[in-house]
Design a protein that fits this description.
CATH architecture of chain A: Orthogonal Bundle
CATH class of chain A: Mainly Alpha
Number of strands of chain A: 0
Strand content of chain A: under 5%
Number of helices of chain B: 23
CATH topology of chain A: Helix Hairpins
Distance between the termini of chain A: 49 Å
Largest sheet of chain B: 2 strands, antiparallel
Order of helices and strands of chain B: HHEEHHHHHHHHHHHHHHHHHHHHH
Radius of gyration of chain A: 19 Å
Oligomer: heterodimer
Number of strands of chain B: 2
Structural class of chain A: mainly alpha
Helix content of chain A: 55-70%
Structural class of chain B: mainly alpha
Radius of gyration of chain B: 23 Å
Largest interface: A-B, 41 and 52 residues
Shape of chain A: elongated
């Protein structure tokens, strides 16, 4: 088991965070959030991976056949559903911001501070 | 016997039904259905508190019970703290709906649906015995809360608030999920009790520490502790008042509860050998949160933002209670959450009365205009005193328990910090009330932001409907009534002792032969004389501070200007840190996680 997927996961998390911190465009910012979340997919799938194992479907093979962990795959799927909800809501806010105020720059949108 | 999942299932089903009915449901029918549903959920949670008083109520979905101590299914594990917190959330949602009966001019069924889904998610988070389900309910709660914040989507304030909220809390959720992934990778389990069993007795290594930092910082973002607190102030500046009442009263507390639940069910067996270090880091976090929240609250001149920072200060006090890691302090923190939650929710509902009457919640615009609102003035004054810990409000009793526990741990100075934070937040509200209701002093424009119309309600009105005043009064009465429940301190302490006992938790969930429950020696926890003294002291301090702020023009000239000279640069620094930009907030979040991680890595090695 290599460390590569874990490194990729950490990289995605950090690069996504950098994007969020530095972004001046809401759509870009929301996609960066999606990148941060992709790191959790990679992490979860890497945790369940076994070298040389097949998919966790035992219909035609003996029960002792090595398989990758199906639990983390279920978690990843739930995670995807959660993300699509969050991203859809955020994009709706971005569309509304653009419609009402003609800008996608978080700095121009802000009315509360201090 | 209340089936454990009912407080989650009932609001979800009703919400689904209401969505299906859509426009066919009249406004009043939607109001009534929501009130009844949330009320019934409150009763169900109260039933669960009683039912779980001596033994965790464990419910395995689909009957997938554990075999040989290995959890196969997904469980709800209900204890009195979790059920009580879910009950508080349900009660606040019920009262928010009663209040909304007249508060909103026009509100679609969507509002009711979102509130009920929000309730179901909060209840699910409190009752879950499975770390991944905690994450799912965390996200469900967050998504419905984002939508409720941005409910008035026509304005830039709510858009900005919802956006900052959604991005910050989503990043927090992913931190938590990464931590959960690490825990699963190490133990192969998602059930809290089983992860706890697998980690127990092993020296904490890098992976366990990383998982602890990731999961707990995710939850701390939800609880709005410094430096993760920025979103709460933005959200509560703009969200509808009844929604703010639920956010401040129950939602932020869930984060603190989550840290406690996860620490004692999962990590205690591994990190328990480093109690002093864990206590030190969490205590530092709580102290900074309490003090910064108090100071920021005093610097605000928009009432809702002022109350939001005050919530941050009080969450800090609850975190201090949690950080002491003793049953007495945890009991104090739990009761504090209840006493503060009800008082703060009452203040937000009273704020709505001002918004409803005058269309603004800015200090300078309200100056002296609210003279005739005697009931609202009384509600604000009492609410402020409840925040400052005046006996007989429950805040004094529970703060006394935390202070006693700190003294037992030879950390007597903690009492000074909690008293100061309470006094600062009480003074902030009292100062606002003196300006708005009495017209004393000259208010200054504090924040550099433009004023937003409070468009949840429109224009000026001459009368405050009774359905808006009654919930606010009821919440204040409840906050005081806590003190008079016989033996509540002792009861909470014995519950807290069980809450902290990982062995008992694991055995009752997994049915493995139980270790004999440790016998906890309990000191009688009645309101001690020192608690009364400290409560009175912080209230007097709050009144004096508010009086000094209102009458600062009358202070000797040299003193006044010198004070202003010293304070202004610091306050403008604090204002500029709270920039309202989500990028800055996420940068602070990263800093906070790195700092927590660094501190724990150093301390636990």
């Amino acid at each position: 088991m290599s460390f590569l997927p874990y490194a990729v996961s950490v990289w995605l998390f950090l690069v996504g965070l950098y994007g969020i911190v530095s972004s001046r465009n809401l759509i870009h910012l929301i996609i960066c959030l999606a990148v941060v979340q992709s790191s959790t997919y990679v992490l979860l799938l890497a945790i369940g991976y076994r070298t040389g194992a097949g998919a966790p479907v035992f219909a035609a093979v003996p029960l002792t056949t090595p398989a990758v962990d199906p639990v983390v795959q279920a978690l990843t799927l739930t995670d995807v559903v959660v993300e699509s909800t969050v991203v859809a809501l955020l994009l709706a806010i971005a569309v509304q911001a653009h419609k009402r105020f003609g800008t996608l720059d978080p700095e121009e949108l802000r009315s509360i501070r201090g | 016997m209340v089936p454990a999942p009912l407080p989650v299932v009932l609001p979800l089903l009703v919400a689904a039904g209401m969505t299906a009915a859509g426009r066919r449901l009249s406004r009043r029918a939607a109001d009534l259905t929501s009130i009844l549903t949330a009320g019934a959920t409150t009763a169900l949670c109260a039933g669960l508190v009683v039912q779980s008083a001596h033994h965790y109520v464990v419910y395995w979905f689909g009957g997938w019970k554990p075999e040989h101590g290995i959890a196969l299914g997904i469980a709800f594990v209900v204890g009195p703290f979790g059920a009580g917190l879910a009950g508080l959330a349900a009660l606040l949602i019920t009262l928010a709906h009663v209040y909304s009966w007249r508060y909103f001019e026009a509100v679609g069924t969507l509002y009711h649906v979102l509130m009920l889904v929000f309730l179901a998610a909060m209840a699910g988070f409190c009752l879950s015995g499975d770390v991944f389900n905690m994450f799912v309910f965390f996200e469900l709660m967050s998504v419905s809360a984002f939508a409720l914040t941005g409910y008035l989507i026509e304005e830039s304030g709510p858009l900005q608030g919802a956006l900052n909220f959604a991005i910050t809390v989503s990043v927090a959720a992913f931190l938590m999920l990464s931590g959960i992934g690490l825990l699963y990778g190490r133990t192969g389990a998602l059930n809290l009790a089983q992860i706890g069993d697998a980690l127990a007795g092993k020296k904490p290594d890098g992976l366990v520490i990383a998982a602890f930092v990731l999961v707990s910082s995710g939850l701390l973002v939800k609880s709005a502790s410094v430096p993760f607190h920025f979103w709460l102030a933005d959200v509560e500046s703009v969200a509808p008042n009844p929604v703010c009442a639920v956010f401040s009263g129950a939602m932020v507390t869930l984060g603190v509860y989550g840290v406690g639940r996860v620490y004692w069910a999962v990590f205690e067996g591994s990190l328990g050998s480093h109690r002093a270090e864990v206590r030190g880091v969490l205590l530092g976090l709580g102290v900074v949160t309490a003090l910064l929240g108090g100071v920021m609250s005093l610097l605000q001149s928009q009432l809702k933002r002022l109350l939001a920072f005050s919530t941050i200060a009080h969450v800090g006090i609850a975190i201090i209670g949690l950080s002491l890691l003793s049953p007495l302090a945890t009991a104090g923190a739990a009761l504090y959450a209840l006493a503060h939650g009800t008082a703060k929710a009452s203040l937000f509902l009273s704020t709505g009365v001002l918004a409803h009457r005058f269309g603004t919640v800015w200090e300078d615009e309200l100056h002296g205009r609210a003279r005739r609102l005697r009931l609202a003035a009384a509600l604000f004054a009492l609410g402020a005193l409840a925040l400052s810990g005046l006996p007989p409000f429950g805040t004094f009793l529970s703060k006394g328990l935390i202070d006693d526990a700190a003294r037992q741990a030879s950390l007597g100075w903690v009492g000074g910090v909690t008293a100061l934070a309470s006094a600062l937040t009480g003074a902030a509200v009292l100062r606002f009330a003196a300006h708005a209701f009495l017209g004393w002093g000259v208010p200054e424009r504090g924040a550099p932001s433009p004023h937003e119309e409070e468009a949840e309600t429109r224009g000026e009105r001459w009368r405050t409907p009774a359905v808006m005043a009654v919930p606010a009064c009821a919440l204040l009465v409840l906050s005081a009534a806590i003190t008079f429940v016989p033996g509540i301190g002792r009861g909470a302490e014995s519950v807290a002792a069980r809450f902290q006992d990982r062995g008992v938790y694991a055995s009752q969930v997994l049915h493995v032969p139980a270790p004999i429950p440790a016998h906890h020696h309990l000191e009688p926890a009645s309101p001690s004389a020192s608690a009364v003294e400290s409560g009175l002291g912080s209230s007097v301090l709050a009144v004096l501070l508010a009086a000094a702020l209102v009458g600062r023009r009358r202070l000797p000239r040299g003193l006044g200007t010198r004070l202003a000279h010293v304070l202004r640069p610091h306050s403008s620094l604090l204002h500029s840190v709270h920039s309202g930009l989500v990028g800055d907030y996420v940068a602070w979040l990263v800093f906070g996680v790195a700092a927590l991680g660094g501190l724990f890595a150093l301390a636990l090695r």
